[in-house]
Protein 1
Amino acid sequence: MAISSVIPCHRSSLLGLLFLAAAPVTLAGPGFIESSRVFATGTGADIEVAFNCKTQYLRHEPQGAGDHLRIYLDPTSICNGVSPLVASSRSVLRPLGSDQAQLADLEYDGDSAGGPVLTLTFTEPVTCTVDMSSVAFKLVVHVLPLATQTAPPEVRPTVEHRQVPRPRTAEPDYVINLASFRRVPTAADAARLQPTADQRVYYSEAEVNGSTWYRLRLGNFKTADAATSALAALQADFPGAWIDQLMADSAAIELVVDTQEMPGEPGGPVGDETRVDLLMADARKAMAAGDVSRAVQIYTKVLRLPEHSRLPEAQEYLALAREKNGQTAHAKAEYQRYLSLYPNSEGAARVSQRLAALLASGRRTGNPVGPGSTADSKPSSRPSNWRMQTFFSQYYRRDSNQQNNQDEIVSQSALYSDVNFDARRRGDRFDFSSRLSLGYRNDFLDEGVGSGNETRVSYAYADLADARTGLRGRIGRQSRNTGGVLGRFDGLNLGYQAGERVLVNAVFGKPAYSATDGIDSARTFYGASVNYGPILGDLEVGAFFIQQDIEGMEDRQAVGAEFRYFGTNQSIWGLIDYDTLYEELGSAFLQASWRFANRLTLHGSIDRRHSPFLSTGNALIGQPVTDFANLMEIYPEDEIRQLGMDRSPLSTTVTLGLSHSLTPKLQINADINQTSVDASPESGGVFATPETSYTYFATSLVASSLIKEGDVTIFGLRHSNSDTTNVFSLTLDSRFPFGRTWRVNPRLRVDRRESLADSGDEWLYTPGIRVQYRRGQRFRIELEAGKQFAQRESANADLDRESFFFNLGYQVFF
Amino acid sequence: MTSEILRSSYSKACWLSAVIAISLLGGCSSSGAFIATRFDPVTAVTITYSQTPLMFYRDESGRAAYARDYVYMGPVEVNRSGTYRYYLWFGIWNTMQDATTADARDGFEAVVVFADGEPLPLEISGWTPAAIGASESVYMKPVASAADAYYEVTVDQLRIIAEAQDVRMQPSGPQERFYEPWDDQTSAKACLVEFLASSVY
């Protein structure tokens, strides 16, 4: 017997449950939900959800309109290639085309207190009709926006369908589904194909949601690898192609057609244009009726059709429809796409104006436009071309510790406030942007106890780009990581895009290695760099020169290069910096990964550099003066350079690692690392330092969905030893999602430290928890708390210590 | 001893030669394609992804000039019998020796990507390939200790990122932690554009 239900007063419609009979047989995916799709209909949209296990519909709520729909289910143990245990899993999905149904997401929770429930969340209140046979693999939710409700349709009987088990062959062939059509494919659709003698081109029929689809296919392939190789070659002509498994019995519903035997395209190109005209007229009607979701769907379809004369028009109207639908970001992207595709079209100026108005109106266009609105409606206030964005966060942090039952000492009690402010203006020729990123620490501890109040300026710059000349300039506090620049600086960076592959940069400024630093009055640098790529496929290379002075003396002068290559199974990244002042290798870094066929990836890196980075200014280290000008009064220039060299010992770090996917839900990673720092000589009153080394071995096991769908547990072991200490560490870190808004992260770390100096032995236990709550898309609250218990035993004295840490804060952006 | 060897001119030349040779070797082995597609025989999904991920970094130059946190970001299309889903993969790692694999994940349950100032809030779908229905990692991790993270997105979100002049990201957490784009990523941007051009949207 079929069960159907209507919210609030609609009657059910026939559910065409031909899932197994007509759909291609595929391996089941992970999780309870096999697939979900959204189809636009004349009045709304249908959301189709397919399950991996046959399921009994129980009830749904609410019975009236709402922005949530909960459907209670009772899964059976009849499943398609998955364990029935998947019915107790949890998954959150957002089907392709969700916007057409005002669907934010759909969530299945098989472990809910009220029993397995499928929850659909909509971006606005809607009415829904739920169609499902009593026990089935699929349900369909018909969504009708409140604004477009009409008289209830006639009741149609719901038909119960039976699943007919079909034997599967042991080793199925593979086929490539080139494209799907609502019409019978023609020879023209396969014109670009060049099948080999043992391949066939044919089409099959499939019933999806009551509609007949014709699938143009190429086959057969004996192995998945062969199909994958062929698919790669076909992607250019058939971008939506996918691989399917072909069971022996599926041929019974297939009609094999040779390309030469396919019927010709009725009407040829004229037919395409006619179809475009019909679709455009349909979309315009939908727009006029306020059914902008439907219009979006149609315009998108028009844009997918082969080259035709109304593409610019469809592109513009798609942007407009999305704007009317409240999809500001999407509308912006569509307008920008129009301007990039048709910059010289007659509509370019008009689209530019709409884009500018959209950017200016900002979030005011975020509300959906109701029915009856016209395409020409204007923002309510005078538009501006500026766009502002603010990000704000505040966190309170408290750290305290206690030794041997003595009084608790609070080492930190401070409120950290951070704000990031962006202002942008995008014009026809010039793009302007500016950014101010500030932080402030409000220390609640007494002066001399805490670190004190502190202001941080991470970024404060203005940026101007000229699209016509390819020039770009940025002035203020900013950050660079290439071109020999070592991070944050105050200054000017000029760029020039000289052709598609060549980018030239010039930079001038003063380093600001810490956000709490003011402008460095002693150091000044300038440099130039050029980047070229991609070449030889995916390789990018760059070279630079940089000169930095300190109080009129050369601080650092270097040339260097960078290259990056990412391949399918190999990647390599290298940086080299040669100091021409000291005639020394300043730094060299090489990192490579290599993936093998058995899910094993090997990693290796070598990093050799002076630490700290080689510069004359390092001569200040260990000196009684803090100002370089004063140092110049004490030592001659040559001696200062030697001091700078002596205080910059070479360090070498070599890391080898591997990562391996044991199963899709279980990964293992392992690293071994050795770092050594060369000895430094005694000079300038600073003692010599011996050579030191540090080695660690670390491994971690990452497992997902152990307890509930979406969780992850990381189990880590680590052993490190240095010249003074051996440390063994164990970490256990789990992260659980609860519903859509809560995340909980309990963790435990246990360390055992062996001191080689006094044979001391220390155990540290650090349990902790992080909790995150999200309200809406723009507000988050986070809590982190933990305690560390330390017990140290040595020949001299025993020590018990407890530390407590606590963070509570929020983030908001608007 | 090692130091002396590296200080010699001969050794410096060897370093440079090795770097150039390896780079050319890498280049020659390249297919030149911006996107790659592969069939996962275990889960029967077809996966398309960008050949070169975008690189982001967080400047830690206050600690050391070379100290950085990194995030690699690449798009993924998962095609399950004609049902398409889109994800962003993050490869999260850093140069800090004391950081653990678990710590690297902190704050990445919820990330905001800012594309030309437009905030795109992303919620984690999962930390292993199982989250997207794949049997192994789509992208290669840069180091073994890197954390994989997958976020479900729409094609429109990917398009906004691809068309933005300025993209950065902010994970949650008690610190201001903006990840800025690595300079001059022509290949990665071209790959993302090509990925979108090939998508079924």
Protein 2
Amino acid sequence: MALLEVENLDVRFYTEGGVVQAVDGLSYSLERGERLGVVGESGAGKTVTALALLDLLDDPGRIEGGSIRFDGEEVLDAPPERLRHLRGGEIGMVFQDPETALNPVYTVGEQVAEAVRVHTDRVGEAAHDRAVALLERVGIPDPASRATQYPHEFSGGMAQRVVVAMALAGDPALLIADEPTTGLDVTIEAQLLDLLDDLAADDLAVQLVSHDLGVVAGFCDRVLVMYAGQAIERAPVDDLFYEPKHPYTAGLLSAIPRLGDDRDRLATVPGTTPDLASPPPGCRFHPRCPYAEAACTKRDPPLADSGDTGDHQAACLAYVDDADFDGPLDFYVEVDGEERP
Amino acid sequence: MPRNPLDGRGRLRVRGFGSDEAAADAPATPDSEADADAPPTDRVRRGWARFRRDRAAVAGLAIIALMALLAVFARPIEVGGVVVQPVALAPYDPGASGVAPAYLPPSFAHPFGTDWAGRDVFSRVLYGGRYSLSIGVIAVGIALLVGVPLGAVAGYVGGWVDETIMRLVDVLYAFPFLVLAIALVAVFGQGFWKLVGALVAVGWISYARLVRGEVLSVSERDYVLAARAVGASDGHILRRHVVPNAIAPVIVQATLNVGTVVLSAAALGFLGLGLEPGTAEWGSMLSAGRDTLVGGEWWVTVFPGLAIFLFVLSINLVGDGVRDALDPDADTDRFRTREAR
């Protein structure tokens, strides 16, 4: 049994502009100790999915259907007490902006100790000691004296470590990191990814939400590509980068700038993400897809096996057998200085 | 196969500039000296440091402290027959009539003169501080105890709870402050606690409204979401994370309101609706002496009036000082600015 199983998750936001289908029939699973990357543009539903896992969505967002099973237990039916235990105790969460995720009026030691108190029997001095130990675990030098300082005395990278320490306080089996490195410069980002790497080595599963393909490539075992609230490609990390199957993934990969590039302009995926209050009919990507055909406007392709060896699925009509789709997807990945079979 | 598939794809590679592994495994270093140098400090201490720089506010605080001390030591205090405070600064019993002929002008024996009943005005003004100061502090304190929780719950819970509380506030707001207080005193009668009750009934609404607005904005902060994500309960989050961050403007408002409440108590006293007639309360003394202005016995009204003026002025100076001290924008945080001294 997988650690986390998400099935047909359906999240809607009831706004004045209409009902926004933020997550639409999303299914994926995550094994113990596995590292899953969730990538996609802004507004693809990555963060909403992450919040939904802990039932943290606020009005006007609502989970309208589907199931989220953690260790076989349904999260969406969980009573409030159980849910509070799941939050932090089983699933830890790291937020995008560490400076705002810490309360300015308490010392960082106190904030980590608070999370410790929620999930263990430790109180008072024992909780504080555990907090200091956690701060040391996440690589904060001189944790005992740093614990008495306030968040504004921490740099972004150090503050993000504190947020990670808070997430680890309940000894969770799954860590959801929602763009944990977005606000950090690259050296600090590398250090933080090292830390996550180190933590994941201890059988901690990590769901890394990111729009940075480089980070995902370096860190994850498997990748889920999201577009307009749907999963459009799901593959082991190497397969995804060497043999992308969905035109959108190919577009994303071609948009990565590289040293020594001889292109005059960066390739982009033309157009913008659709308005999710009124998504396009058929395949949601078809208005931006260079390979789109008439059939794409009519039928929304399911995630289908892409004919590749192993566990590689893409939601494109090209991989649906009975679809009226002719043209081949003729993109490919060129690897310099290395022949691949 | 390399761990990072993109590694093999770049055509330019810098070699020999340190190895990748060394860079990646380098231990996290403390972020900056500035972080380490900053002494541990908290909001209260920083606020006090700023408050002390404001000389007018400090002078106001000194005057208030002096008036409070004079009021406490004006006459001996007995609790259950035991004298707990034996000092008597006031030369005469403030209630005793006929200690001297009526309407004596200020003299060495009677610094503020005597009133129509031959009572010593100096003693009465000193003693009257007990009523005015305690009414101000107690009425504001109770109003805070009522208004802050109600406003916080309204803002945090929302929905019909919010509607119920805030519509009640709106209804009470529709009455002029003093008119409502007069009506309440007229209905419930005179007396110290009834007066306090009337002032609380009209005073809590401004705190409730202020706290609600602040709570609405603080609830959206990431650290509240982070606290939910570690499994803290709503009550805990409201008490520990939301209210402490929403309270600063309320403290400012409450400080300034002490003056308003003292003025209102004096106004009610002047209208004959405050404490029992003859009580040495500043407003009542003004009221009782108002006929004497025509007769030229100015000392009967001027000294209690001056006492009210001085107290309210001091409170306002202190309130301004508190606002400046708590306002994060007033004197930008020395930890974040280059102009840090």
Protein 3
Amino acid sequence: MRFFFWLLAFCAFRPVCAQILQNEVTANFAHQVKQIDEFIERFNNQDNTLIKRYAERLDTTVRFRRENLIKSLFNASDPDWNREDILRFIAQANDTVKPVYLDFFDNHWYAEVNCAVLYRGKPNKLTLVLKIQREKNGASKWVAVSAIADYLRLPVRLDTTTGLNPLSHATDFMNMDLLATDKKNIRNYLPDGHHNDMLSVFLYESQNNRLAISQVNKITYHFMQVGGWVFTVGRFNRQTRNSGWLINRLLPMDAEAKRKYALEKLNLPVEMRTF
Amino acid sequence: MSTPLSRYIHTVAGLLFIFVRAHAQDVVYQTNGKKLECKIIEVTAQKIKYRIPQNPGPAYSMESADALLAFNASGNYVAFPLAEAQQAQAAGFMNPVVGRQFDVIVTTDNQAVAAMELSVGGKEAKFKNDKKKDQKLARTKITVILYKDGRHELFVDPAKAAAALTAAKPQVDKLTGADNAIKTDASANTKEPQATGDAVAFPGGPEEFERFRNKALVKVDELGTYLATIVNPQTPTDKSNSTIDLAVTLFVNEAARVEVSNVNTGIKNKYKIRDYLRRLKLKGADYQQVEVSYADITYASDFRKGPDGNYYGVVSFVQTFKGLVDGKIIYGDVTQRNVTVILKLYEKAVDGETKKLWDVFLADIGIQETRKL
């Protein structure tokens, strides 16, 4: 259902803006969510966030309500939003007793970074998933927690009958060489549920100069720390007020669904799939 | 002057304060009937700022108009609405409570009564008054009890309790000694803690962080001025070259890179800062005249400590570029620049001694060309 109710988010000061603003670029820049840090500030309704200071500069009586700020963080050009989901999400985030905040140092949020790469001399694509790691001395850094690319995956087995037979030990595992040669059925030699550690494969290939990152093409942030929800944030480069880092997907999700999402979408290792 | 010892004492005192508060709970009774358990960090006539202990995050605020009553863990309270003239009351709310040996009963006729050895039954409350004489009071005559351990109990709905507590406030303050505390501590610092813990860890504290943040904005502004000079075809070659040299000195070193991304083509190119500035100079030569303008607002993120011990932030600003030939715009774009700012220690010789000082430097820049004019 097409709706633009979030455009009402700034209705309290838009008329004032319209009268005063001479410079559309400045106005768009002020409204644009310029960094993911600013996204977090607006989501949390922080007093010092730029949009508030900007609006107060134009109209000292302007007051922001948190639900309106959160609404303005959704990509308004998407006609397929589920209005009920958005309203439920905002109500949960803005609950007066147990409000939801985002913290830069939260555990369950990740950056999905789509890269252009050269793999074995040919252009290809790679997705790296990163998270913030906090150090003991208060420092922090982004670290890669998974990699995703078809060429890093173990192949789907063609023949389920190969493998090391249960008496292999009696022949001193003389067929062990099959692990290196039965390439198409390599999964037969691994336990069920084996986690395809593509990050290690990526590191091995790049360490051996077979894989090099050319540039970052696209970034999507996955916020999984809000109870019952997963939402993603992407960048919308356009000269409108509804631009910058905006929510482009909102999914109601219980803990089990989040575990599945963490594995299937982000290929996260098992220790990061606890919700 | 802040010495290492005084900073240590200050830090320990702060930790103790946090420890005591962490084990207690503040409460706000709201006009919508809900009871918000939180940790109140500031109360003014307009706003109540608080944090939720179970959900650590930056401070949240609510309009004071949406609140009836706020109690802190010490048993101090503020009833709303709060007039500007009652700001001292709000300041007193944040002060440590003066210890007392008795509970305080606020009655339905808005009287505050000191009560020792208080026991509250189903029909009445029994206690000893300040002359140690046994007293009884029907429950129906009680609006609120403020216990000496900081707890409170409402015997009527919060709106009625707020009215009674407002009326009884002078008596309550007199009994608890809070009136003196307000007079002596009204100027106490009730400033909201920083949203990030990093600022606290930075030598010099949040104020120094803010100073360097402002310095970073000045340097970014300076860079903008240099860029406009470099790209201007009217600038003599000697001057544009010296301006490039000046611009480079703003950066942490010449290895700082600039990545230019064109959102229309998806192509991204990286240049070292000096190379980028030289290319910018050549770009200007394509026109007879250029116009470069900047939005008068910038966004600066918080500083965060990196693994190398330096602090990192990013300043975003937007630039409009127009290239003119014969007075007509033949090219124009709007670009957003995200400039990394590094707050780092550097060594400086002062009076023959080498001192380590903090300063801000510019580093890698991301540039997005978003629109052709």
